[in-house]
């Protein structure tokens, strides 16, 4: 098997809120191999976006990483300063944001936004002030317009000139999503984080966007963390799926197997809730996601779990390996410590 | 003979765009351009299509939140497209709607009790004490405890808000409920619970649902009849079983083939087609031909561009508007 590009170990993130300390990410552990596509799936608020943001160093100010390690190519990202992050973002690790219409600045044309991106990426040490005072000069000198046009053509946006002169509200959601993909790919990153791309689009446009992403991933040999709440999308695009629940990974396995024979009670519940074309009966999971300020001790799923034992209410189960590439965090299964 | 609850006869809704100080007419958006279907008692009907296809506009016309431009709406044997005043109020008592986004359709400043009892107040149902009892009963129906009575929408989760919205719709004892994307903002595990609840309520209260959605796997599991809309027209209409087993219109096929599915067995059930080119559906449509022909993978050329295909019955109960399928 190829080398590991990213390793997240025992990550804990807390939020200081008015109501108290919210322990949102509670020991996320996973590895990403080179050229592997993994999907983080889970329901709203389970911490999948937050995990991704911590890898890119763009957590909201009230969030604090209280424990854990994020190793990217044998470098602990959590030790980086802002300058170090800037050298990494875009060039090594890039992100396709959740909502393209919100991520693009409505006051600037697509072209302007691309130019700034390219210019700043090439000169990570320049301060924003000195960049904006010399912006037009830099743009002229370095002939970045042609490069920007090529980026757009690369994601099948034609004619590139017209798109570059448009403002974000003048293009469709599908096109905006393509612009965001072009931006993410512009610095030739090796790790791509895709946060729910295409979810705001119709199924037909979503399919086109996913096909485009798939093509780019393969063409460039990217390693990808794909975040989605749509289990079908995860199944179609990823090699491996990590099911998250309330801030930690509940189960991880290959994409074609995990929904076939899930082991974790939460995964089993999720499987039963999926509306399928096979007309299987849909059953929801009883109860609701626990509050992060006062989460249940032990396994955070114990309040909704029909197999909950005494042990589950006391000590949090670790993610253990139960088979080939299959790990699960549940006391029902005895495995080897991974 | 099954009882028809609702019937639409070539319903049209045009929005006129006005410009300038004199409100000169600058264009027309044909949001619904002549659609007909009927909903039978106890058979859930699904209206599917992409955003901008006009499905929500149909729902709003039925509730008479919009005034239809042309056409007839028959509800329980009465023509309601021009109803006003008392008659309209009576109709809305029997036909209710659950709106798209539960977060924005509940007033954040009022508590659950006041939200649910609003329809009772408006229709003057029962005395004060009766109404309180009825709210308790409705909360029980949607599986919320009495503790929720004095909470406000902001402290509720998405699924709970949807239950409150549903309880409000049930308050006036309707026979038909229009569900506009009832689960699209919810997670799968919550979605399953809401759909199960809807099914139980249907059995208990003898309801019929008109489901407006873009989620095809929900349609498959929840409805008996389906119509596919595209730019204000119905392109295909049949029973849900027939639609999924034997889709005829190229658009229906593409919709189905774009569906991201979880299990391999499902993949085998989907038709294989090439994905559609990206297109903005929010165009002012004026061309004469088939609405879908610019994006159609099976387009016949000249005929599709110039002649609009009528909705024709191909096999029993299966209607398609496509030159190629005839």
CATH class of the largest domain in chain A: Alpha Beta
Helix content of chain B: 25-40%
What structural class do the secondary elements of chain B suggest?
Answer: alpha/beta
Profile the largest sheet of chain A: 9 strands, mixed
What percentage of amino acids of chain B are in beta strands? 15-25%
Outline:
The complex is a heterodimer of chains A (338) and B (326). Chain A is of the alpha/beta class and 338 residues long.
Task: Describe the structure in your own words.
The complex is a heterodimer of chains A (338) and B (326). Chain A has 338 residues and is an alpha/beta fold. Chain A folds into two domains: 4-92 and 190-337, Rossmann fold; 100-188, no CATH class. Helices cover 35% and strands 24% of the residues of chain A. Chain A has helices at residues 48-56, 82-88, 100-103, 110-122, 128-133, 135-142, 144-154, 160-164, 173-185, 203-220, 231-237, 255-258, 265-273, 310-314; strands at 4-17, 20-33, 37-41, 63-72, 75-76, 93-96, 191-195, 223-228, 240-245, 248-254, 320-323, 326-328, 336-337. Chain A starts with a strand and ends with a strand. The model of chain A has no long low-confidence stretch (mean pLDDT 89). Chain B has 326 residues and is an alpha/beta fold. Chain B has one domain: Rossmann fold, CATH 3.40.50.300. Chain B has helices at residues 55-62, 85-94, 102-105, 112-122, 128-141, 158-170, 188-205, 216-222, 240-245, 250-257, 264-269, 302-306; strands at residues 4-19, 24-40, 45-48, 70-75, 78-79, 95-98, 176-180, 208-213, 225-230, 233-239, 312-315, 318-320. In chain B, the strands form two sheets. An eight-stranded mixed sheet of chain B has the order 6-7-8-3-9-10-12-11, sandwiched between helices. In chain B, helix 5 (128-141) crosses helix 6. Chain B is globular, with a radius of gyration of 21 Å. Chains A and B meet through helix 10, helix 11 and helix 13 of A and helix 7, helix 8, helix 10 and helix 11 of B.
